[in-house]
Amino acid sequence: MRKRISLLAAGGLVALGLATTPAHAADPVFTLAGPAGIGLRPHPGEGGEPQKTSVAFRIVNDTTKTFDRQSTFTIDLAPLKGIADVTLAKEQQGANCTLAAATVTCKRWALWTGETTVVDLDLSAAKGSTVGRTAGLTVTGRAEGATFKAATTKVRVGGPDLVLDRADLKAELKPGDKQNLPIVFANEGTDPVNGVVLEVRTTHGIGLVEQYDNCSYSEDTAAGQPWNTGWSTVQCLLEGQYEPGAVYGVDGSLTLKAAPHAFIDGLTYAVYAAGDQPKPGKHRTPAGGKKLAAAKQTGKASARSAQQTGDLDPWDNIQEFDFATRNTADLVAAGVSLKGKAGETVRADFGFRNNGPAWVAYLRSGEDVARTDIVIPAGAKATRVPAGCTGVNADGTPREQALGAPRYFCSTGHVVGETATFSYPFELKIETVVADAKGSVTVGQWTPEGTTGHRWDPNPGNNKAAFVINAKDGGPAPTPTTSVSPTPTTSATATATATASASATGTAAGTGTTANGGLASTGSSAAAIALGSAVLVAAGGGLFLAFRRKAGGHA
Predict the structure, then answer these.
(1) CA 373 – CA 162 distance, rounded (Å)
(2) For residues 146 and 135, what is the distance between their CA atoms, to the nearest angstrom?
(3) Strands (DSSP E) found in 301-392
(4) What is the pLDDT at residue 101?
(5) Are the beta carbons of 111 and 58 closer than 8 angstroms?
(6) DSSP state, residue 111
(7) pLDDT tens-place string over residues 174-227
(8) Residue 295 dihedral angles phi and psi, to the nearest 5°
(9) Rounded distance, CA 40 to CA 189, Å?
(10) Under a CB-based contact definition with an 8 Å cutoff, are residues 190 and 131 in contact?
(11) Nearest to 386 by CA among 344, 338, 350
(12) Close Cβ partners of 95 (under 8 Å, ≥ 6 residues apart)
C-alpha cells in the first residue's frame, strides 16, 4: 500500500524558504516547495512489508518568463539514516534524477512558468527505527543567474491517523425524506489527536436539519470557483483527546433531509485533526445551546488498529455519497415575437425557464444540462451572438461562421436551478421583410441533430415555442423585451454575453457571471474530496452511477 503526500495534501501545509542560495540581486527567485511534514508507519508494516509514503517536491516559477538555463536540485538523505529508507518513485526513474551515496540529484534544462515537479521520493520506516524519531528532508537548488529558496519536510516515524467509517445511507429518495448520518471514526495511528473537526458538505438539494453551537455553517457561492458553488459546508469542533487504537462515535443527531427541489445530489463527510481542516469562507455560528460531541465506543475495537495504516492519509479520512431523488423539472421555452423594417437591427432574448420543482446539476460529468435550439426566420440574419451559442447549418451540422447562421445551439452549463431563467441576447438584422416569418425556440437534451426531451421533464409539450417576425396575429406569448435600432450592427464577432446564475438557495436571474449563459456551477471540497473517483451521468434522462470507492471500515 502506498500513500502520496504532496504540496496540496494533508491540509495544504507547505514548508518554504528555509534557505536561500546567494545570487545577484537582479536574478529571478524560484521557490521550492513540499509538504511541511509526513508520518511513516512503523517498521515492518502491514503484512511484513514496509508501507511507502511518497513525497513530492516542486519548483514554483511565478515570473512571467521561462528560465532557460540548466538547474540542479539536491537532496541530502544523510539525516534520514536509521529513520527512513528512500528510493526514487517509479515514475521518476530515468527522469533526469539519480540517487547515489545518500544524495538525490535532479537536473532540469528549463523552468517553465507556474509549478512543476522536481522529484517524487518513496519513503518507508527503516528497520530498527522507533516511533517518534524525526529528521529533516531538505531540497536545494542552484543555477547560474537564479536564486532558489529551499524547502524542508519533517519526516517522523509514527503519528496519528484518523480513519472514517462509511455510513449506510439510502441513495434513492423522495422530496422531504429524512435519514440519520452516523459518524464513526478511529485513530489508527500511534499518537493521540487533540481535537477533531467533523466536516459535512452537501449540495443544494440535501441539507442537515440540526444546528449546533460548536459548528460553523457556510455556503460557497464564489463565482470564481464554479465547481464549489452551491455546496453548503458544516464544520464542527469535537473537543477532547482521541487515543490511538480507539473508536469513537458522534454523540448527537445529524439528520439529512431531501429538499423539495432535490434531484441529483451529493454528500461528503470527513474528519480532520483540529487545525488541519480546510478553511471555510464566510460562515456563521449559531447560539442555540446545543453542542455536538464524540464518545469512545466501548466493547468495539478497531479492525485495523493492529495493522496501523499510516498517518496523514487524507483518503481514509473522507467518505462521499450520491443521492437520486425522485423528482421532475419542467423546462419551458419562451416564445419570441419581433417587428421591424428592412435594414433595421432588432434585439431578441431567446431562452427558457425552469418551472421546477427540481434543480438539475450534473456534478460528476460536468455536461450541459440543456440546449436551446434557435431557428432564425426567413429574411433575418444574426449580427451579434452570445458567446455560449454556436451557429450551425439548417440541418444542425457544424459551420465555420458564427454570424448569419440559419440556426443556433446555446448551452446551459452543468447546473440549472429550480427557478432559473436562461436568456441569450441576439441582435438580428431584418434584411428582407417577410410577413409572418416563422422560426422556433426549443429547449431539451443535446442530440447530434438538435434536442430531444429529457425523461425527467414531465411536460415536453412546452419545450418548443414560436419565434415570429412581423406576425400577422401579434405573435406568440409571452414576448421577451426587444429593442429596435435604426442603425444596423456589422460586428463580425460574437461579443454579447448571455448569462444566468443560481444562488445556493436556488433562485435564478437573467444575468450572472458565466460567459456561456450557464448557471454558477457546483462541486466538491478542494483539498478534501476525490470527486473524480465516481461518475454520475444523466444520459437520456436516466441516471447512471458508477462508483469506485475505497473499501474499508471498522468491525
Answers:
(1) 51
(2) 28
(3) 318-325, 329-333, 336-338, 345-357, 360-361, 371-375, 380-384, 389-392
(4) 85
(5) no
(6) B
(7) 999 999 999 999 998 888 999 999 999 999 999 999 999 999 998 876 554 444
(8) -130, 145
(9) 10
(10) yes
(11) 350
(12) none
Q: Name the helix (H) or strand (E) containing 267.
A: strand 264-273
Q: Buried (b) or exposed (e) across 394-420, using 16+ Cβ within 10 A?
A: eeeeeeeebbebbbbbbbbbbbbbbbb
Instruction: Please report, for residues 137, 142, 339, 406, the alpha-carbon distance to residue 153 in angstroms, rounded to integers and kept in the order given.
Output: 5, 19, 70, 61
Over the stretch 51-104, which tens digit does the pLDDT of each residue have? 888 899 999 999 999 999 999 999 999 999 999 999 998 876 666 899 998 999
Name the grid cell of 545.
452511477
Q: Which of 71, 66, 57 is nearest to 116 (CA)?
A: 57
Grid cell of 333 as nine digits: 421555452
What residues does 95 pair with on adjacent strands?
Answer: none
Cα(181)–Cα(254) distance, rounded to whole angstroms?
5
- The whole-angstrom separation of Cα 488 and Cα 312 is 64
169's grid cell = 445511507
DSSP 35: B
**Cell numbers standing for residue 103:** 544524495
Under-50 pLDDT residues of the chain: 1-23, 224-227, 299-312, 477-555
User: E strand or H helix at 140, and its extent?
Assistant: strand 134-142
For cell 469513537, the residue is 248
Q: Which of 390, 412, 352 is nearest to 538 (CA)?
A: 412
pTM: 0.71
| Cis amide leading into 357 (omega within 30) | yes
DSSP string, 334-356: PPEEE---TT-EEEEEEEEEEEE
CA distances (Å), origin 257, targets 117, 174, 234, 261: 43, 10, 15, 11
Which residues are within 8 A (CB) of 319 and not within 5 positions of it... i.e. 6 or more apart? Answer: 164, 165, 166, 167, 268, 269, 270
| C-alpha atoms less than 13 angstroms from C-alpha of 454 in its C-beta half-sphere | 27
For residue 14, give the DSSP letter.
B
Which residue's entry shows cell 406569448?
477
Q: For cell 498517518, what's the residue?
A: 311
Burial of residue 487, with CB atoms counted within 10 A of its CB: 0-12 exposed, 13-18 middle, 19 or more buried: exposed
Cell of 188: 489508527
The SS3 call for residue 317 is helix
pLDDT of 497: 30
- Return all residues near 451 (Cβ < 8 A) that are at least 6 apart: 370, 371, 373, 442, 443, 444, 445, 463
- Please tell me the distance from the alpha carbon of residue 12 to that of residue 92, in angstroms, as a whole number: 23
